[in-house]
Structure formats: C-alpha cells, structure tokens
Write a structure and sequence with these properties.
single chain; alpha/beta; eight-stranded antiparallel beta sheet; 23 strands; globular
Length: 575
C-alpha cells in the first residue's frame, strides 16, 4: 500500500488530471500536513456512502472519487444479474456546488456499464429519490448530496431496491470493489447526451413530482382542521437555498394553506449558501431571515428544510418572539398527533407500530405505549428503521404509522424509506392548524404533553476532532470508555452499560448480564441512577464524537439542572 507521499506523487504524475487540477495539487507541494490530510487514506465507504470536503485528493470529494465509487457501485449492481441492470438506477442531486457535474458523471459510468439510468432533470429532495427507487422499481439509487453540511462538503448517498440506504453487506461489497479498482484507469464512461439519445439514460421530471406529491398528500389525516383556520393561519418557509423550494410550498398549498410566505433571499438556489454560515435546520441562528419575515407578516409558524430537503426545523410564535421546537420535541408532538388524529378518524391500525432511534427521547416510547401503539427503537439511521418496517411487514406483526430520530428527521407512508421533509412539512402544518383551531400553539401542545406523559429534556453535544490526529483521538476515547467504563458520570451512578458494538449489557458489580436485541454499531449507552441516559458514539459522516443526553425529571427546571452537569462532564471528555 502506498504511503501518502507516494499517493500524492501518483496523482501529480497522472495524465487524468486537467491542468487546473494539476496546479491545485502542485500548489501544496511544500505543505506536508495538507498533503497528508488529502492522501493519507481514501474516504471510507459506509452505509451512508461517502461524504467529504470538495478538494482534489484521495480523502476528498472530487470527480475522480465519484467515478471510482460509481464503478465500484456499478460492479455490485452488475453482479446481481441482467434483471438488476435492466431495472437500473435512479440518480438525484441537491443544490451543492459540483452537484450537477458529479451526478451526470455518475450517470455516464453507470450507463457505460450497461445499467439503465433514470436521472432527475434538476435538483430534487432526497425523499423523492427514495420514492423514485420504489415507484420505478429500480435496483438501486444514488443521491449526490451532503445533506446539512457546510458549503465545502459534498457527498455520495447510496440506496438499494427497497428505497432505503444501503445495507451493511452491500456497502462492504462496494468498499471491496473500490480497493480493487484503479481510481484513474479502472472505470468505464460514455458521453451523456449520446447515452440519452440511445435510451440508456432517461430524464425524470414533473411526472415523477406529481406521483410523489400524490402520495405525500395522501398522508394528510384532517384537512378539515386546515380549512377551518386557513383564512388566518400563516406560515413562513425557507428551503435554505436548497431542494425544498418547489415541492414543499406546493404540498402546503395543496393541503389548504392560504397564507404561505417563502423567504425570498433563501428561495434562490445556491450551493454556497450565501445567507447562512450553515444550512442546518438544527441551528436556530440560520433562521434569522425567516424570523424577520415572520415578525413582519405575523406568522404563526416557521418551517425550514435542509438543502436536500430530508430534514425539517420549526419555530413557533411565542408572544413577539419565535421559539425553536427541537427534533425530539417535534417527533413526540407528531407521534402523539398522528395517533390521536388517526384514532379520531378511525384510521389507526389495530396493530399500529412506531419507531425511533436509540439516541432519541425516551418520551416516544411512553407516548406510544400509553396509547396502545407498539414501539421499538433502532440504531441511528432510517435504513435501520426501514429494515424494521420490512421485518414487521414480512412477519405480519405491526403496521408502522410513524418513525423519527432526534436529528430532525421524520418518516411516514410506504412510498419512501428515508426521512422526508416534504411530508413532514405538510404534517407539521396540519398539526399546527389543528391546535390553532383549539386556540393553542405547538408550544402549548408540547407543555400539555409534558403534563400528561412526564418531563423530558434532551441535549446533543458535538466533540469536534478534525484531521488525522482527530480520528486517532476519537478511537482512543471510545476504546478507553469501553475498556474502563466509569462507575459514575457527573456524580450519578452508572447502573447499566449497553455496548452496542457487540451487544453486551453490563451491570455494576455483576459484569456482563445480557445481550441487546441488536448489535454492530460503535455506541456506548450508559444508564444512570437518576433515570437519565448518557450515550456516546463517533459520527459516521463528520470528524466528531456525538454525545446524547436523554433526561427524565420532575419538572422543566429539574431537567435543565441535570443537563447542565452532564454537559460539563461531556465537554471534559473532548479535551
């Protein structure tokens, strides 16, 4: 295996580089650290595909890495046989810089390998890509997106025939193919326009949008609630320069929302995200333009979707200000609303089930079970929820009605197998209208849920560890916590540790006592004596350790006090 200096020189010597690319690499000739960061290893291909900053080099997103990954992906599809090649692949992209070039190049590699390609004419929401895989019955899907990451990033998100992101065995097969293929000479490609003329590449457009929207609108439970308040209820919407700009407003209008105010500056499609530091709906500061507009028009609700429109953030009017509803809070609100609205309309299945991730609020289980709905949790990622839904369907056990995770992702319906901000935006609007009709905001509704089900608070911390040194530090921290688990965290006794890597459950003083229902992910889950949970895992897409604090308390103030002490402990781990 070549070291990073040899890999750097190989790239410099490659005739595959354009003059501009060669100049970019030659410019870092004296920067040892930059050379190491770009060439110490390839981007790791996982179940979420690839994600990285857009630079030239082995460890970044660029046209050479795109071709390399796509040839490996094509080999895995070809190995499935002629039927899989005929069914082909659906390809989409978001608003990211270089997104169109990357998507078209991926289409050319797939077509050159005899795989039929359906590619969207322009940017589209991630959930519509998942829908297209199911709707057209393709063997696979590909989305060029870096979701909510900053403008420097792009990504390569891969799907299989079930409409969900790749299962681990398929991701491993692609990773193995990448190891065997030369990045500069090991791929096939063709001319895009000629492939379109030959029928090898098919362009998707409005007909797919309409089919998708039809399914989205079918999820509405109580349009009458919207109609009852439509003359006065107001919503401000921002797509943060991304994919939601078209279909989210359309879905809201078809639902019956009359007063919708898109943020003009952020309706402009732009992968440099000129109005925000980060296009992440988890960050309240990104909503400043939306808040200004909301105050001007007297809006009841603000909805924001991330660049690939699979996640949604919301803010609610509280007097003269706007307050953020967190991902966990919205998940609980929607879960409770979907259950109660379906009960009221007689559409709740007898065997209804709901899903959430192990790092999401414990309140979800309480809401579901107190309403007679079966509840299960999974690893972080909607591919795991999609697997569980498929298992329920195969066994004929439960009919899922809602799934969510704390990072602002929600899923309903059988037409997508990934988080979906288009459908979620519509459901949030319907739910807010329902409560508005009762003279309540979503904040009022949330407080009513706390009074009914108990007080819960959550906090997610990111311990950022960039660069090669950071990767090593992340490994060492997880190893240390695993080998020498703390007996207490911030003064609270650890009563149980779940190690989801091998599925072991440890109890203080007794050792290993049981197994978790599922395993295979680098997650440590500490259960504390006060009923709180302290969960830690490395991010799968960014150079950081994520810490999740799930708190159960006697009141809001009690929960906040507990969060404060656990934050101090978590921050010390990152130093």
């Amino acid at each position: 295996m070549r070291n990073y200096k040899e890999e750097y020189q190989r790239w410099l010597d490659s005739p595959a580089l354009s003059e501009e690319e060669w100049n970019e690499l030659n410019a870092i000739a004296g920067d040892e650290k930059e050379i190491e960061n770009r060439f110490f290893a390839p981007l790791e291909f996982g179940t979420a595909g690839l994600r990285g900053t857009m630079k030239l080099g082995l460890h970044h997103m660029n046209i050479h890495v795109i071709r390399h990954a796509t040839q490996a992906f094509a080999n895995v599809i070809v190995a499935e046989g002629e039927e899989a090649m005929r069914k082909g692949i659906a390809i989409a992209r978001d608003c990211r810089l270089n997104g169109s070039e990357f998507a078209r190049e991926a289409a050319c590699v797939m077509a050159a390998n005899g795989i039929h390609v359906r590619i969207f004419e322009d940017l589209r929401p991630t959930p519509e890509l998942s829908f297209a895989v199911l709707h057209y019955g393709t063997a696979a899907g590909l989305n060029i997106t870096a979701s909510h990451n900053p403008k420097e990033y792009n990504g390569y998100k891969v799907y299989w025939s079930d409409g969900a992101q790749l299962p681990p065995q398929k991701a491993e097969a692609i990773a193995q193919q990448m190891e065997a293929i030369d990045i500069f000479t090991g791929f096939k490609t063709c001319d895009f326009d000629e492939a379109v003329k030959a029928g090898k590449i098919e362009i998707l457009g409005q007909e797919t949008d309409e089919a998708f929207l039809e399914q989205v609108l079918a999820q509405a439970i109580d349009k009458e609630a919207v109609a009852a308040v439509a003359d006065e209820f107001k919503i401000v919407y921002t797509p943060f320069h991304g994919c939601g700009y078209k279909l989210v407003p359309e879905a809201l209008k078809r639902l019956g929302i009359k007063h919708l105010y898109p943020v003009p500056e952020q309706m402009v499609i732009d992968g440099s995200f000129p109005t925000v530091e980060s296009p992440n709906p988890e960050n309240p500061e990104g909503f400043y333009l939306a808040i200004d507009l909301a105050k001007k028009v007297g809006s009841d609700l603000i909805i924001g979707t991330d660049p690939d429109s699979d996640r949604i953030g919301t803010m609610v009017r509280s007097g003269d200000e706007y307050v953020t509803i967190s991902g966990n809070q919205m998940g609980v609100l929607l879960l409770d609303y979907v259950i109660s609205a379906k009960k009221a309309t007689g559409t709740l299945p007898e065997n209804a089930g709901a899903l959430s991730s192990i790092v999401s609020t414990g309140m979800a289980r309480v809401v579901a079970e107190q309403n007679g709905v079966h509840f299960e949790d999974t690893f972080t990622g909607f591919k795991f929820m999609a697997e569980r839904v498929a298992a329920w369907e195969a066994a004929g056990s439960y009919k899922y009605i809602f799934a969510f995770e704390e990072s602002y992702g929600y899923m309903m319906g059988d037409y997508v197998r990934d988080k979906d901000a288009v459908t979620a935006s519509m459901m949030v609007a319907e739910m807010a209208a329902h409560y508005h009709r009762k003279g309540m905001t979503l904040l009022d509704a949330l407080n009513a849920l706390y009074e009914k089900y108990g007080w819960y608070k959550e906090k997610t911390l990111n311990l950022v560890m960039p660069g090669l040194d950071g990767l090593q530090k992340m490994k060492e921290l997880m190893s240390s916590l695993r080998q020498n688990p703390p007996a207490e965290i911030a003064g609270e006794e650890v009563i149980r540790l779940r190690d989801y890597q091998d599925g072991s459950i440890f109890v203080a003083g007794l050792g290993k006592v049981d197994k978790t229902p599922f395993a295979g992910s680098n997650v440590l889950y500490f259960e504390l004596a006060d009923g709180s949970s302290f969960i830690i895992r490395p991010s799968g897409t960014e150079p950081k350790i994520k810490v999740y604090l799930l708190i159960r308390g006697q009141s809001s103030a009690d929960c906040e006090e507990r969060i404060a002490k656990y934050i101090k402990y978590a921050e010390a781990l990152g130093k």
